[in-house]
Automatic annotation (TrEMBL):
The lineage of its organism: Bacteria, Bacillati, Bacillota, Bacilli, Bacillales. Belongs to the ATP-dependent AMP-binding enzyme family. MenE subfamily. This is 2-succinylbenzoate--CoA ligase. One of its GO terms (molecular function) is o-succinylbenzoate-CoA ligase activity. It holds the Pfam family AMP-binding_C.
């Protein structure tokens, strides 16, 4: 079988534009050539520690330059890298390490106290960095079909699944992104999202393909991020809603400079209130829809449509196709499941042939999300199929109700789920975290202004906090236990 190859990303970049800055952190700055030299060394140190071609090793590390070095070193050896979410519990991590048949785990020194799967060799970063170097061949080309990274989904709908991401997935994701957002030699992408997520990892891949500088923050901090946009030449940043809302608060009356050209907003639904606030502040927000399985963004709203189509996630990236299908799999103009096809879509889930077969049918990936495409082809993501509430035969989307709840000044966080009801089958119920006291009557009055009667929550339950995944997404299937307790 002849497979398509491209040159190894970082090697090619270090050859093409060695002196451009690859990455900047508060502590250090490295050119692509310097990064390449370090990566060669780390690859040889990994080799000393027994890492060979086709092995799977795991990385448990916060955002730091060494993360980037190890990622590329793994590609120099031709091994695979499992990226572990550092916020997971030991049990969750052990599941992933076993499932992915990991031979070596590299961990930050700060995480030493955790007890991982004892049968797996563990290496701390200082131990790796002080290892001798052993000879190893370097993989000079990337086979686009080959798996490079493994990343587990966030587990919002059930047990996380290991997503196989190939070199080709990353390459095409980067190409698709550039064809959509454009590319400028002055571009500088700020990373304040975790590198172990596809949102962060995809920026590292773009950096080598584009020859683009990144600024790496260890963690998100609104003030530092705004400062970097205002004074350090950042032109693009990837954010999720909660980050954006903190940035807006911190920004106050100030405005971003005109050189700042793109706020890529994804990861979950974006409340209209926040999008409107961005319009008022002239912030160029590109709403985007994607998932671990599509190696980052798949559908993105271009700036020329951002005002006209506020709330839409946009149209697919150039190399990608998208359809909405009904229960029988036929294309529909109504709301239905979003299915996608393209070279950035995963080839499947690790060790899960059944889940893979279910998700990938005739080349189309079934996202499990419900959306609607308008007459001009713009996608509106409504909700996850598994969270859909059917009340008296009508489809009710929790995200729509949560959005309206969040418009009320007393509501800080909201999660909506369906509960059984004798008359209607199911009715919506809301769990809320409040900023101040508010009565059910007042909330109902507020909701009635915006929503049809069948969408109004029948119960409001006050909770201390909402159940969330390690990526901070609400786990709606866990809300029902609060409602039973509270009502
Ligand atoms: P799991 O598949 O294990 O339940 P997950 O789907 O939450 O986890 P991710 O791959 O991190 O894991 O998240 C992708 C999902 O996030 C999408 O399928 C979608 O439900 C949601 N999402 C992403 N972008 C948007 C968006 N713009 N609007 C609404 N939802 C979004
Ligand atoms: Mg998912």
């Amino acid at each position: 079988m002849s497979s398509q190859t491209i040159p190894n990303g970082l090697m090619q970049r270090a050859y093409l534009t060695p002196n451009r800055v690859a990455v900047e952190t508060p502590q250090t700055s490295l050119t692509f050539q310097e990064l390449h030299k370090r990566v060669q060394k780390v690859a040889q140190q990994l080799s000393f520690n027994g890492v060979k071609q086709d092995d799977t090793i795991a990385l448990y590390m916060k955002n730091r330059v060494e993360f980037i070095e190890i990622l590329h070193a793994v590609s120099y050896i031709g091994a695979r890298l499992l990226l572990v979410n550092t916020r997971l519990t030991n049990e969750e991590i052990n599941y992933q390490l076993t499932d992915a048949n990991v031979s070596l785990l590299i961990a930050d020194e700060t995480f030493l106290m955790r007890e991982f799967q004892s049968s797996i060799t563990q290496l701390t970063l200082p131990a790796l960095k002080s290892s001798p170097e052993a000879e190893t061949g370097f993989q000079k080309t990337w086979n686009l079909e080959e798996t490079f990274t493994i990343m587990y989904t966030s587990g919002t709908t059930g047990h996380p699944k290991g997503v196989l991401q190939t070199y080709g997935n990353h390459w095409w994701s980067s190409v698709g992104s550039a064809l959509n957002l454009g590319l400028n030699e002055k571009d500088c992408w700020l990373i304040a999202v975790p590198l172990f997520h596809i949102s962060g990892l995809s920026i590292l891949m773009r950096s080598v393909f584009y020859g683009m500088k990144i600024i790496l923050e260890e963690r998100f901090e609104a003030r530092a991020v705004n400062e970097a946009i205002e004074n350090k030449g950042v032109t693009i940043i990837s954010v999720v809603t909660s980050m954006l809302s903190n940035m807006l608060d911190e920004l106050g009356e100030r405005k971003y400079p005109h050189t700042f050209r793109c706020m890529l907003l994804g990861g979950g639904p974006a409340p209209l209130t926040i999008l409107e606030a961005c319009v008022n502040k002239e912030i160029p927000v590109y709403q985007t829809y994607g998932m671990t399985e599509t190696s980052s963004q798949f559908v993105t709203l271009s700036p020329e449509d951002s005002l006209r189509k506020l709330g839409s996630a946009g149209k697919p990236l150039f190399p990608c196709a998208m359809k909405i299908v009904d229960e029988k799999g036929n294309e529909t103009s109504e709301a239905g499941e979003i299915i996608v096809k393209g070279p950035n879509v995963t080839k499947g889930y690790l060790n899960k042939p059944e889940a893979t077969e279910k998700a990938l049918q005739q080349g189309w990936f079934y996202t499990g999300d419900i959306g609607k495409v308008d007459e001009e082809g713009f996608l509106y993501v409504l909700d996850r199929r598994s969270d859909l509430i059917i009340s008296g035969g009508e489809n009710v989307y929790p995200a729509e109700i949560e959005n309206i709840l969040l418009k009320h000044p007393a509501v800080k966080e909201a999660g909506v789920t369906g509960v059984a009801d004798e008359k209607w089958g199911q009715v919506p119920a809301a769990c809320i975290v409040t900023k101040e006291d508010v009565s059910d009557e007042e909330l109902s009055l507020h909701m009635q202004q915006f929503l049809a009667k069948y969408k109004l929550p029948k119960y409001f339950v006050r909770v201390e906090e909402l159940p969330r995944t390690a990526s901070n997404k609400i786990i709606r299937r866990k809300l029902s236990s609060f409602i039973q307790k509270g009502s």
